Queue: 4 jobs
Job 1
Amino acid sequence: MSLVIRLSLVSLLAAFSGPALAQQSAPASPTAAAPAATAASAQDEVEEVIVTGTVAKGRTVLDSPVPIDLISAEDLARSGVVSDELGQAIAAIAPSFNFPRQSNSGTSDHVRAGQLRGLSPDQLLVLVNGKRRHTSAIVNSETKIGRGTAAVDLNTIPLSAVGKVEILRDGAGAQYGSDAVAGVINVLLDTDPSRTDIEVTFGEHITHMGATDQHITDGETFTLAASTGFVLPNDGFLRVGIDVENRNKTNRAGFDEIPFFEDAANGYLAGRRNYTMGDPNSEAYGAWFNGEAHVGEIVVYGFGTFSNRETTGGAAFFRYPVGFANVLSVYPDGYRPRTRADDQDFSFTAGAEWELGAFAADTSVSYGRDELEFGVNESLNPSLGAASPTRFDSGAYEFDQLTANLDLTRDFDVSAFAGPLTLLAGVEYRRETYQTRRGDLASYQAGPLAGAPDFLAIGAQAGPGLTPADEVDLQREVVGIYLDVAAEVSPRLLIDLAGRYEHYSDFGGEATGKLSAAFDVTEAITLRGAVSNSFRAPGIQQDGFADTSTSFGSNSTLVRTRTLRVNDPISRSLGARDLDPETSFNASLGVTAQLADFSASLDVFHVAVDDRITLSERFFDDGVNTFFVDFVSTLPGGADVQSVRFFTNAVDTRTQGVDVVVSYDHELFGGGFGLDLSFSYAHTEVTHYAGTPTELTALYSNFRLVGVEETNTLETAAPKWKTVVTADWQNDSWSLLGRLSAFASARRVFNFGGGFEPSQRYGAELQFDLEGEYQITQNVAVSLGVANLFDNYPDRSIPDITFFGNLPYDILSPIGINGRYLYSRLTLSF
């Protein structure tokens, strides 16, 4: 905690050292790293009312009892992201949000998950227009950050649909329900009925890759977004839009040095780029609507999104000509499988607001569904020999969620209070279902060459299919009741008290509560703080997920790993237990200030999570002890199993940190100038490990549920701090933006078996982005921009980690591995 305190004091002194130089004009924008168009618009942003974090009416970012980031649609449009990715756009602006890219990570190459304040992706709740968003059907089983989680896929929300984003950086389980351990992202859709927008963007990576000393142009990306609005009678509105994207793959693989464990006959492939490391090809389109109509005294509203994304060419390891994973008659020079995914996502909400006696009533029904079909091209099931197909359907995952709410709100006049007491009471019903479907037979079967004397690999390479035993069809129901009361008990003091009880049909009930307050020390300075407890029930996907993947084993060989449900006989024999909900305690304390053109906020936080759910270590023959496979093979379903893992409540963690946002806005050279600094620091440590089950220690005393890799994932794999500094200047014709992002160092640790656990600390990184926009006419604007102007790459990985030169960079680097990206944008607004 000492480092957090020191950082807090330094930031606080910095925040209050500059106001003496400020000029008397409009207040500053509170938006994290947001541009300032003019002094007037900056004042509008300061005074914009937030809808997340408290039921108290009329609160803004600076007088909210909990920390809120407010990100406008303009901020998102100018984030410099490679494609139509809402998650990446938020990460470019909000330092507390991390959105890592993956490569060579199975389905995680196609679906990305974000994390807030260094916590797990599934500990972040996402709302759209204040309504709970469904999660992805995919369990990110092969990622480093967020391994074993099923999170909301933010990239299924079209970027053009977003009016603004509010990020609540505080535990909010009592207010919004399970999953809000780290906080809440509330995506508010565009409501303007009088505007038509058409935006066309083209960009590409133009970079020099130092690992191979090559000049590369790739990742060509085209996006088209069009939206329009309609005015409906009685102040109603309807806004609709479509998005289209086409993005080519990138590749940052190195020159192959040929693994020592392969036959010498493969040597002629040395010096080639046999592997792929980067983004897949992507074709996507989406549609959305947001509307409201007034029918008598009733307000009827509805909104929805649709997304279809087809990605191909996800990175996979090269299979050498001579080896257990190839059939020479099919691929005489080896092959590199290309994973593919077809992801369809749909969400719809309908609701109504009306007066119910003295209460304002809001009732709604939301339905969301995500389905991903996964497969692999240019692959092989070697155990089938020359008869093997080369294209496989590896299986499908489906998740849907039905949510119904009834909220009642009323203001009470309390004579002893300075303002009204606002009460919100509600009830929620939620039904979740999760299904998986097997792959085609050839994708998982053990063919005639699986046994002696050939022992060729089983299943589709890079995409082993789901087996009949992996299929599952689960359903659960959740009922919650909640109460939130906020009151201005004095002219300076706001208190907000919330409580919730939720009952899960498969995990029982849990109560949560939250107390938050804001106290105005002066007209310019506000103190705020909150304490709460939250819980997160195991995702239904975590309860039902099972699959087969390929991972590194001893001597860097590829090992088939089975992820098993906790109730599988094999996992039970290794000590697996039914999953328990995670529980957490959150506390935060902050201060905000607004002085003339200057505003600042500083918030220190503490989050303790007990019974945190992770995937266990992979248990396999490690080259030293070779009895594990023999033991598993005697169990039901244990034939052909090389490695096993399962979900477990394995650790307790503690996360502590500080967030700082400082903004200055002023008139300069006939335009509006804005300078914004945002800083986020979060440090997570494991405070307790669950004991190793006796079933495991009886096999081998060194087996542990969680080892060096998962500990590294939780504690040090992501940078502890991030700073974003944005300078922006605008007048009626020009808009110029520069953004500097700085990231702390990170450490990666791997367990390749046999006691081989290489690690590397990757140094701190800087990224500089520029964008300029010229307003040609009132309706037409053109923009040019560059992300990662100086073409910075992460440190090269040490030889022990590069898999013989093929994977030269750390895929989790926050600056990415693709290098410089240049783009242009044409915007038409009517």
Job 2
Amino acid sequence: MKYVAHSSLASFLLLLAAGACSGPPSDSPVLTAEIPLHLEEHLEAATIVGSEVPTDLPQPVVWSFDEEQPEWKILPLGELGFEPTQLTQTDDALRVTLESSTEEYTDYSLGAFYVDVPDWMPDDWARVQVRARTSDNVQMIGMWFNLPEEPKPEGEAWPPFRFWGDQASVINDGTVHTYSLRADFSGGQWEGSWRELILYALAEEPGSIDILSVMVIPKEAGYAGEPVGTRAEVRNKVYRRALYNHAPARLEYEVLVPESGRLDFGLGVLRDDYPVTFRLTANAEGGEPEPLLEEDYSDKENWAQRSVDLSHLAGQTVTLALETDSERAGTIALWGAPTLTAEGAKVDRPNVVFYVIDGGAADYMSAYGYNRRTTPNIERLAAEGAFFERAYSNSTWTKPSTASFMTSLQHSVMGGTKSLFSDPVPEQVLTMAEHVHQAGYQTGVFVANPNAGTLSNLQRGVDLMRESWDEFAYFGGENHRESSRVLNGGFWEWRETYPAEPYWVHFQTTDVHADFPTVSPFAGLYVSHEEFETWEEWGEQLSEEGGSGIFSDAWEETGLDRVAYYTVMQSLYDEAMAHNDHQIGRLVERLKAEGEWENTLLIIGADHSSMAAMANIGLAIQDSLPPPWSEPMFSPSIARIPLLFVWPGHIEGGQRFSQPVSMIDVLPTILDLLDLPMPEIMMGQSLAPLMMGTDGWEPRPVILDEFGLDTETDELRGKLEVVDGRWGASLEINPEPPDEDEEDDPEAAKRKRPVPLLLYDLWNDPYCLHSLHEEHPDLVEKYTAFLEKQWAAHQALAQRFTPGEQVVLTPEQLQTLRSLGYIQ
């Protein structure tokens, strides 16, 4: 980029006056918009005047515990079933002692403390950084917001906070580490100001953690590094890829305006006390600058969407100038996803609609032969495209699964799970959104599960992301039941403001998650009101005796019928699936009405089957149960999912494939169909040759991979599994050693796997009720060796994505990875 600094507002105005009658800068490249032109992606082509970082940015608020900070107080945890936390001042830290639970249902220890803050507004703050150390087995440190405003209703459980916040995994090596928690992320609908900052630590056993300091960082302070740049910013739950600068500033681009050209963008600010004046001008060679927009804006809680018609400049090369000014020098201004397009222009590449049914079970879809007509719209779509009968998710729940299919990398390669609110996709990995955004696609994400969004760092490369999850059942919100309708509505709002093509959109609905009944007219389709009330009563009885888990002792204690209970749950799930399918049908109908369907690639998939959404129904409704340790990930209620590709005029309709495939194949398939470059490293393979009838596809075993980090040993523990035609094999990696308390506990012993590798005949035992490891020692040996080789490959690849210095793989490792098709 060409950058021109200034020392004062007066000199800045002189620079503007000097350039007022000049044409486009002669040394700047001319940008074109045959496909959508994302101005924030082309800062290297911009001439930037001004945008000086001010010296009076708001400073962080810091508490240093090398001396007493009496304003920090113990948070009572009795309502959560824990003994009171102990706070002790040491020479350089506040020692927080984590106390045991007084309840039988949990073995965890918890400690929490808080400080009053002076009615801060949550949107003004970026992060809370905690410096801490511990040698105890503390698992995580996290944040809550605000104490309850009202006394607890009698007889009701009531947490001692209003909103959940971010959390991070703790390193237990006895040295000081800094944990960074997002201050602009919370569970629940914020009302009013931020009044109390609450910090907590969680451990598997009583212990302590020393807090050396707590720092709360204002959002403005996060913009001190670069005078101009790009980052995702959130306003009212809407994240936008924003081009930021410090007013006063002028960003000049030399662009060739297309036919029917238009510039779409959002306006945003970080503070409301100093309005920002946004100006947009166009200057054709030899002419006067033409004012196209001038607006004062000061609403820090919302984006203002704007569109400017450039059609009268079609065919001309102009200097497009984005200017900002403010009474306070250095005030941050945000241009949300400034995109130059040719309205109505058709391009060679298709739009991409990637529709993920969160918790979508193939077994309960009529498109897959289920005996209820739950998915008539997906049935019709299957007749128009390529339908995969044996598709699997690569993990059992949303976070690892979504990260895998958005990157085509297995879960362990990206580090495994450390905590619910951490483990984002590594910065070194390009996501699906980043791949297509770099190719000029407009990108939108509409998700009802934060694990499919910002909690996984999947806002990268996204022009606009709406995380509507707090409108549903997370942390006391409304419910999941209408997520598909809400997300569809958000998508069409986005299309109205950014109507150009091509676009890529990722939906992730949660209609089928366990929040029943669904909405009318689907509520009551399979379960009457009376049956639903009885089912809820059963649930309350089971909860009082330890819960409704498949292997719970509550069934014997209550005398309730497990099969009857889960049969009703299955019917409630079916109603929700029918609603989600209906909304998919409405989405397709409107795509057709808008004239977009013929140029759209639609992919329908799921991140996992029904178990993580509500229960392993397929197993629960069996008359007899297998041992508690016999639940491999490839069991149909855990990982069998739908997968469907439709592209009118390109993918032949009515194709059905029985070969095992997985969601990790979706990214390479999309890139292949769009004729975009493949990543150097990917662990899936393109299904395009299979669907298009060309060479290049060979059957591969499907790999499932899910791991958690043992913070005490720094080992990854989990399962690595394979589906290989008829056979499924599950290998336990680094199994947990038995606890001393478990050695004499027959119930605990029942849940331990008897051998590292379990083996199933998926043709004759689809629900994985009986492991054949004793009957087929030859296959046990074969698949143990196979999965151990896979594990070595995963560990080698993981070195490429470990923060810090780049690791060089050995020739042997590279050869293994190439033989598996993981490195191109």
Job 3
Amino acid sequence: MIGRAEEAARIRAGLTPSEGTAVVAVVGPGGSGKSRLVREVVDGLWCDLSVVSDLRGVVDAVAATLGIPVEGDADPERIGRALSGRAGADGPVILVLDACERAIDAVVACVPRWRGAARLVLTTRVRPPVGLLVEVGPLGLPRTHADAVTCEAGQLFVERARAVRPGWTPEPDELPAIAEVLRRLDGLPLAVGLAAARLRILGTHQLLEHLTERFRLLSGAEGSLQAVLQASWDLLDPEERALVERLAWFRSGFELAAVEALVGDPFTAVDLLQRLVDHSLVRAWEPPGLHGVLWYRMYESVREFAHRQSDVPSCAAWLAERGYALASRSRGPEMVPVLEQLALWRADLEAAFEEGRAHGDGELAGHAALALDPVLKTRGPVRRRREVLRQAVEVGGPLADEVFLTAIDARAVPPDVARLERIAGAEGPVQPWGLRALGRDHGDRCDYPKAVALAAEAVRLQPQEARNHAVHAELLHESGRPLDAVVVYQKGLEVAKAKGEKRYEAGILGFLGILDQELGRGHEARAVTREAVDILRSIGDDRGAALYTITLGELALEGGSGEARACFEQALVGLVAVGEQRWQAFARAGIGMAEAYAGHVEAARAAFLEAVARAREYDEATLCAVVFCWAASFEALHGGLVTAARLVEEARGGDTPRTTASLRAATAALEIGRALEAKAAGDDVGWALHRSAAASLLSHQEGWRTEARVIGRLLEPLVRDAALREVDLTCAVDASWFERPGEERVSLATRAANRRVLARLLEARRTAPGTVVEVSDLVEAGWPGERIVPSAGASRVYTAIATLRRIGLKDLIQKKGKGYLLRPDVVVVRV
């Protein structure tokens, strides 16, 4: 026997006489191997009752087994006397009443008359109200593809397959197909054995494909799956059959509430459900996250059989509405059990969503999509989450605005500004949500005053909503007001704790950790971020825990901790598990940076190559820009200047205010790499120019975010070796102002010609340091479109240059040949 050790031990224990006799009922679905198990364990008289349905039939069958004549009416007492006469030195004889489900009432009536004369073993699909109950369920199923042939069901499959294909051993790429076959057959021995026998003519992949017609496929010398299920079906009364047909819609399981909704009366529902469990057609189990609550599941083959009896009515609308109502409670103190329940329903919610989408039913599709969202968001796959929300937006319906806002939060659809403005301007339950989303859109476009005002209005309308405070604080942070952001985050944290919203509590703690780091409070940053990760893990939010573990990795990088690589690897495992592919690029880049810090050049390069490849698959500007900047910095310092330059250009394509500092740091790394290359080639001018450019880029680091400071720390040894100079001049990109160290800013806003002349000198200095800009070129730049005689033009240029020198640039602008230039050794920063 494969498996069944525990069941066999219970049967033996039950047949050990304690006070004369014992009764053991071995109960399980058809095809579970009840009779085979009893034959292995019990040495006794065997009576087949599979075709018997009444008392007379039972008595006659047992009489035939005992070899005594059948006389007159059914007489159980006469059978009892005959059994007593069979007792031996070991005690009463063992009588096995096999397959007695059709005559179960008659057998139960005989048990009190026979139990004093024999030890009885009943094998039945229907649970009797007598004796010691030993349940025989499916064999153990594979947890992963790797144990497809080592689990109990897999061992049986291999044994039966080798009976028809001697020496057969599956290849590794066959294991997923075998595991799926075993799961779809519920590990029931008869079905597994019949399937394995088909390997005489089918491969494992073909076998899986043909399981769509399991009842035609699974028949042979051992029996037929169709016949086994038909026998079980025949035992049901019309009311029980009708309920089985309705429940067959549920793929992944159902709760008592579903039965009550289908039946209408709670007490009738309990009674009918009990009868289906007693018939071994429905299994009960207690999900790990729902203590004290039983759920129920129908065997897959039973579901398929019920589907073939009639058109199964859909339960999609009921389930989607119930799931939607539950999802609204997935942020509060009930989050863990709610998520567990929604996760149990996942396959059926997916079916409900597809039904709604196929029929253009926006209400059904919307309810199902929003019920699925908390599970897909926290447990993945994240790509499926975006797909569902995007398709739900296309269907529309009465929940269209809520679906649309959820889709924006998930980055499943681009923000439709006109639609957001309509939602934000109309009173209703989603108005604050619309204000938040619109505020974030303005933030993405760097319109921070408007963004902060919209988020503040959402807080005013819903002050007891932690999400509103979190978005308000996030936008304050991005607008350059970190201390104000801390205050608002603290308010949001109080709200989240008061309402028991653990996920928002963790989210706000994570953001506070980022702020603490930027404010120079590294120890506090690590403490609150770890607290956030612990909370998220405790509530089953694997995606959130992985994302904040990335933050821990960044903090470890900046702080010089050796834990960085472990944090990024742990985060990557979590991201892969939930299918969050977008952030996998960042985690891999973090591994690359940790390897770079440790001096492991080849390992770092491999990690960065993978990170860049993953980043290019997505259009997340901020994330991709940081990945490219980190990889470019590494390549620039290890001889890959061409690759580094290309990555910097790619990063510029996704540049946002959030990534400007990272781009400056990566460009500085590129300039340091070029400087080192020039020095090695004996190019003193190139060495000086690139070194000065790097110094310009690395000045004013106090406002840098963690991502940029990670690059800065990578550059520290080279910066010290190169002895980079301080900045000599800081200018606006359009030359509308400039300032010297320790001096006040000088505005050129009202001096258009001077501004344009300086801008031309700066541009020449940036593109080709040391190049002289001729007077004619400066005339065209300073007074575009005007016809000026050369002498008058030269005079104007002379006056403009003299003015620039007088107001602060005296020692920086030089006259050379027929023009002017900014000194090539000057360190200039353009912001």
Job 4
Amino acid sequence: MRASPLPPLFGRTVRRIHCLGVGGMGMGPLAIYLASAGFELSGEDDGMGEEMRERLLSAGVATGGLPREVDLVAYSSAIAPRHPALIEAGRRGLAVVRRGELLAEAVKSKQLVAVCGAHGKTTTTAMLITALRAANFPAGFVLGGLLADRSPPARAGSNEWVVAEIDESDGTIGAFSPALTVVVNLDWDHPDYYRDLADLDRAFAALFARTSGPVLIGDACPRSLRTSAGAGERFTFGRSGDFAAATASDEGAGLRLNLSGRFPPMTVTVGARGEFNASNAAAALAAAALLGVSPTPRLLAEYPGVRRRQAVLSTSGGVTVLEDYAHHPAEIRALLGSLRRQTTGRLWAVFQPHRYSRTAQFAAEFAAALALADHVHLLDVYPAGEAPVPGGTSADIYAEMRRAQAGAAVSYMPGAKGLAGWNGAPLSSGDLLAFIGAGDIERHARDWLAEREKLQAAAAEWDRLAAEWRPQLSPDAKLKREEPLAKKTTLRVGGAARLYAEPATEGDVVQLLQRARERAIGVFGLGRGSNLIVPDEGVDGLVISLAHPHWSRFEPQPDGSVRVGAGLRLKNLCGRAAAAGLTGFEFLEGIPGSVGGALRMNAGAMGGWMFDVVESVEAVDYEGRRREYRRSEMHVDYRHCAELHSALALGAVLRPKAAAPVGDISGRIEGYRRQRHESQPREPSAGCIFKNPPGASAGRLIDEAGLKGERVGDAEVSPVHANFIVNRGNATSADVLALIRRVRARVRQERGVELEPEALLYGREWREVL
């Protein structure tokens, strides 16, 4: 505690201050600054990170709920108006102020160096702090982030100067009257507060007018130059500014800049990389010079960096994983451009948009900036207290990127599974993966790294299992690791199976199912994949396909029945039955599946159902026991056979309706084929996507909602039949799922009907993604 008396705040004596949102990068450092100035600080945050908690506690800031004794409550812009602590403060009649207002009040008696602008102000502030510290210039400072060397992000200095990062996002910029203003650049970054760029220009022009000393402007930002034209004393920094800094090299551990203009000519080293950091360093060195600190070659050589500004998290396996705070299209474009020059492999990006309003305003710009990467994975928007707005979701950025069909490959899975499902990304040595965003993506990044370590261990275990199981199978059986599944389905989307098997005998099937049960591994049967949507991340389990010729038998029996294998294609069943003069199977001809899948789903078409012709089913349950079910024992209804949800069908005995001339049967088959050709799309699909609601047609409801032709990427609601989603060439599973969500939402909104999927989401549950 300081011996000197505390300055009054807002015209009153204040000693105890409670901060809401103290875990954030704005409020946390401010609390630390005030604590170092002698105030008693406490704070709370629903999403407090451990690193910030440690910094707060080491600075003497208590964490917890609203204390009994408190003089002032400050809150960040992320705090909702109905936050319980705000309500309680109102009930007690406590003074309540915004974070920016408190900062302005705390430094109003100081000579303030205000670092502001859209992109790079935290890095520039940190560089200026580094330069002043290296020159033993004892200014106070308030950074909007955490320094990577774990030194305090704020402190009360011992001279009259204080350096602070000023945020324009909520309008509190109007409370500041700096002695020196540093503007890194101007951009429309907060459409939730500034209706247009003119509003932003007016806010900064007023700040420049209130600045008692110089205004320092980046020479590469026309808007900054134009807006500051009326400033009393103005200098520029940059390649050709009054304070000129040109990049001499950008490699290895950092930058080397050649200084000229108002700088004494020299080459300086900066502990950072990238052209945008050259501009930030020029701003910091110019501001230091205006404070009377002469640059030296190593003034910024020990710049430690700021957490979440190109902070490297891992280099395991030759893959560099880093995080960055970029959350505006211009920042992302600059970041990815710099990273592209730094990597010898592919550039991957995981992006979490920040605020629905910003996402809605810049969805197209985000899509264009992210396209600089090779692969992009989108997470849901971090709302920062906002309610959703139309056009402001990650799905909208995804749609923009898919619509453009240029640049990066993009994937998106909403909800809690959004990143977990992407952990199988095929990263290789030399690749660089950047986690980008201003929300809680740092937590996602660390969770992802931890999960990836588990997945790598799991992959080794899958390899071990495959090696252990192969010798137990017959010579003709196949057992593969990471077998691609997309081309094994009629929709042609999705990832790989961790284990994929094609058993050649019943003994193989029993062996596989018993071993899967022993290991608690999920089992998934695969026929022709005609009603399946395979997720892009693939299937964590054992996929069994009866593709071996052994399972395609067609054997007429003396009693007139036919014994068929589960791997027999329905088209071939119809053709062979017709050649034998057997009727009753014609309706199955156009269903692009196999007998096993038709049994499991009780497939139907043209008024007929699979179990109309079934006498019995041979199966092996998932415990490896052979079973034979009579038709009368089975529980069958619309698109469902209960017994085959925990068993794998091996074959069936079918009962034809009667014998008939081959020509008559072939004629009926051709009629059904013609009818399907006219009413169903030819492009790859998974058949009907939705079940028909009671008393209604899913296709008709979708059509009446005007959704025919609706697209996400290359997934399209078929113009021929609205209950089909077709693959126009390069659709992903994420495209299809995004389109399914869009169709369901539109039909729910316009017709009040909740459509339920009929197609299977292979290896996952629909509730996870809808």
